[in-house]
């Protein structure tokens, strides 16, 4: 079974502030059942002490363990962004959303078992993905950052072979892209990096990365997966990568369609 792009990876990436625009997010959800958005921490830190207390109560143990204003600000901002996106698509408003985590750390929303959410942060950037179709994962990293990643620890033999033929700068960029894709996929599975990134890989495909899990393409007959990496620039001092892994039931009958729209701050990365 080939990897078919799903609506989640074809939608524009929305740069959001607390003021919106929420009509575009709601329209994305109504048309595709998925939303992919990002924001920056300073805009999403709540100004009201009561709101901050409400957000801190989402995960009281985790909140209590955080030390330093920077970490606490990022926690509050990420929860407000996640709550706001879910509140917009469900019509409840952010105060009516109750996020939580499974014992393995996978985020979910209480009372909405059919909704899948994923959250990521890097530097000032927060990314959130929401799907009504199935598992979803998002990961973000600053593009071009120095990295201690090694192909020997991240890549399958097939991936390492492709990397070996690239120039040093191309190799570093491609390795970071593969890393974010693998993070997004393991987040979608709910296992995180408890699963070795060398146990699965991605091959270039005509319409996006193709999953090769243990050497086999698309191993789960009940789900189809699609993947994409985007480079986002708006309101950021440096560009950031956003990688997304999205699943849909193989028998859902929902065709993958392109919206025909693009965001000026979003550009696809080379996948071959």
From TrEMBL:
| SUPFAM superfamilies with a match to the protein in the record | 4'-phosphopantetheinyl transferase
Q: Note the Gene3D superfamilies from the entry.
A: 4'-phosphopantetheinyl transferase domain (3.90.470.20)
Q: Which UniProt keywords apply?
A: Transferase
Q: Low complexity composition bias: which ranges? A: 250-265
Query: Which InterPro entries did the record assign?
Result: 4-PPantetheinyl_Trfase_dom, 4-PPantetheinyl_Trfase_dom_sf, P-Pant_transferase_sf
Note whether Transferase occurs among the keywords. yes
Region span, Disordered: 248-272
Q: Where is the 4'-phosphopantetheinyl transferase domain?
A: 135-225
**Taxonomically, which superkingdom?**
Bacteria
Entry keyword annotation includes Transferase? yes
Q: Which residues form a coiled coil?
A: none
UniProt family annotation: Belongs to the P-Pant transferase superfamily. Gsp/Sfp/HetI/AcpT family.
What this protein is called in its record is 4'-phosphopantetheinyl transferase domain-containing protein
């Amino acid at each position: 079974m080939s990897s078919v792009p799903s609506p989640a990876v074809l939608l524009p990436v929305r740069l959001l502030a607390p003021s919106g625009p929420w009509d575009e997010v709601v329209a994305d959800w109504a048309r595709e059942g998925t939303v992919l958005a990002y924001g920056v921490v300073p805009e999403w830190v709540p100004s009201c002490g009561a709101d901050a207390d409400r957000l801190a109560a989402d995960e009281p143990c985790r909140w209590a363990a955080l030390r330093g204003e920077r970490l606490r600000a990022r926690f509050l901002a990420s929860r407000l962004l996640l709550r706001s996106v879910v509140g917009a698509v469900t019509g409840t408003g952010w105060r009516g959303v109750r996020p939580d985590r499974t014992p393995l750390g996978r985020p979910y929303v209480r009372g909405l078992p059919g909704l899948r959410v994923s959250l990521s942060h890097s530097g000032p950037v927060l990314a959130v993905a929401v799907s009504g179709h199935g598992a979803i994962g998002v990961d973000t990293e600053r593009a071009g950052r120095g990295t201690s990643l090694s192909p020997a620890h991240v890549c399958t033999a097939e991936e390492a072979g492709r990397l070996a033929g690239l120039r040093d700068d191309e190799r570093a960029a491609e390795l970071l892209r593969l890393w974010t894709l693998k993070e997004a996929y393991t987040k979608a599975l709910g296992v995180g990096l408890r699963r070795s990134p060398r146990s699965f890989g991605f091959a270039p495909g005509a319409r996006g990365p193709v999953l090769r899990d243990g050497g086999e393409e698309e191993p789960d007959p009940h789900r189809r997966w699609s993947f994409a990496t985007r480079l986002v620039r708006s309101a950021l001092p440096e560009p950031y990568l956003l990688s997304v892994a999205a699943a849909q039931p193989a028998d859902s009958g929902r065709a993958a369609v392109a919206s025909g729209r693009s965001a000026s701050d979003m550009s696809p990365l080379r996948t071959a």
